[in-house]
Amino acid sequence: MSARVYLLAMNDLLTAALDAATSSGADFADARAVELATESISVRAATVESLDRSESLGFGVRVLANGAWGYAASARLDAKEAIRVARTAVEVARASALVHSTPVHLVDEPAHVASWSTPVATDPFAVALEDKVGLLVMATQEMGKAAGIRVARATMDAYRQRSWFVSSEGAAIDQTIVNTGAGIEATAVADGDVQQRSYPASFRGHLEAGGYEIVERMDLPANGQRVAEEAVALLSAPECPSGTTTLVLDGHQVMLQVHESVGHPTELDRVLGMEAAFAGTSFVGIPDLGRLSYGSEVVNITSDATAPGGVGTYGYDDEGVEGQRVDLVRNGVLVGFQTSRETAALVGQDRSNGTMRAEGWENFPLIRMPNINLLPGEGSLEDLLADVDDGVYMATNKSWSIDDKRKNFQFGCEIAWEIKDGRLGRMLKNPRYTGITPVFWGSCDAVAGPGEWKMQGTPNCGKGQPGQTMRVGHGTSPARFRNVSIGVGQ
Questions:
Q1: Tens digits of per-residue pLDDT, 301-317?
Q2: Which of the four pLDDT bands, split at 50, 70 and 90, describes residue 9?
Q3: pLDDT confidence of 327, banded at 50, 70, 90?
């Protein structure tokens, strides 16, 4: 089937669902079909540890009837099924309306008719499997050259999601998103101690919007031996001291800090208590908008679905709202939330900023972070270090713990170094730091400049009940924080 015929067939299916929903009494309806392909490879030494390829195709219908939401989905792609699913969604909405105290209202959004795709130089699914595995094996062999390495692992992941969206308001959107990532990790073991170093990042490495060119740029084999030698060196390194000091974080750890302590608490459904189950709520309230001192004046954070390379970059969200860049924190002050058409209406805003996304066709969209970015400041990492007489530099996230309101946290990193008189000194192992979100961001006195800024990506952000996993981006650079409590992590 040609691409054009395929598109027409999908639009016909979704249009049939819309017609059935509105004729059954829905005041509003949208229908979304999603075709998802994923590939995940893991190599340990010269052995393929796991190889998973999966494909999924289905559609879902979301309706408003009697002021309440209804949703139904199916993997059967025919007109008869589309009609049945749409009618089921209307029945769900009417049942929900019996116990729903506040009718749902949606802010306006233009009815977009558009196509959008991630820029891709090399389709990751078109690269020969033996070439991908061969690259990962080369990387593990380089790590294995360091004496003392117990486990050398390399991973690669690819995601391609094509979606079709139509609404009773006239929207018709065809969108394709491609994310690709890879990474290596070396584990050293001696005398009951276990240490790990990763590149370019932990937890399956670095993920970015684009194709196989992203993996090629990483040059995993060239970094293998260095990463492994750092893991071995950590075994004999002293532990991170405890106390209060100046802390400098690398861009990867700043990514996790932004994600957990800014991204989640500014999701408006959490602020309003609509996601109070597994996801928790937020320490931020509606009256805090424009008033709360979230951080120091150097802290500027945006929600940006338009940032090049971000795994949270898209043309339109899953309720047909155009992707946008909006300020969340400006000069340290909370000035925005991540919103949907429904939550924007609840707080009196005239437009959603387009952050509703669903993991797949079977899922109802939720407010999900696109790219939550800490805007760069000035200077280099060396400049940040130069103004520290005595402190610690921590790199690469290892662990995280934060309460359900996203206020009190403890994070651990893979590696740290002493900072003495503006220079890096001894390597330290098992570093961790703790803080309270607005106090911690208030202690930030410097963010490195554009030359250090990099788009990071995480593939496993969880939210919702039933749970959904989403890929989220964060543009960050190293940052410096004063008077931070640090110590030894477990």
A1: 999 999 999 999 999 99
A2: confident
A3: very high
Amino acid letter at 268?
A: L
Is the previous residue joined to 431 through a cis bond, with omega within 30 degrees of 0?
no
Cα dihedral 442, 446, 449, 452, rounded to 10, equals -90
3-state secondary structure of 117: strand
Report the alpha-carbon angle 464-466-469, nearest 5. 60
Q: Which of 21, 28, 17 is nearest to 109 (CA)?
A: 28
Exposure class string for 393-419: b at 16+ Cβ within 10 A, else e:
bbbbbbebebebebbebbbbbbbbbbb
Task: Round the average pLDDT of the chain to a whole number and report it.
Answer: 95
Instruction: Give per-residue pLDDT as tens, 41-52.
Output: 999 998 999 999
Q: In Å, how far from its chain's centre is CA 480? A: 23
By CB atoms closer than 10 A (0-12, 13-18, 19+), residue 22 is middle
Q: How many residues does the chain have?
A: 490
Confidence tier at 4 by pLDDT (50, 70, 90): low
> Which domains are delineated in the chain?
3-236 (3.30.2290.10), 243-488 (no CATH)
CB 426 within 8 A of CB 241: no
Cβ atoms of 175 and 330 within 8 Å: the answer is no
pLDDT tens digit string along 13-22? 999 999 999 9
Tell me, what DSSP letter sits at residue 429?
B
- CA angle 111-164-464, nearest 5°? 95
Bridge partner residues of 249 (DSSP): 394, 479
CB atoms within 10 A of CB 222: 12
Q: Where are the beta strands (DSSP E) in 228-312?
A: 243-249, 301-304
Cβ contacts of residue 242 below 8 Å, gap of 6+? Answer: 486, 487, 488
pLDDT tens for each residue of 458-467: 888 989 888 8
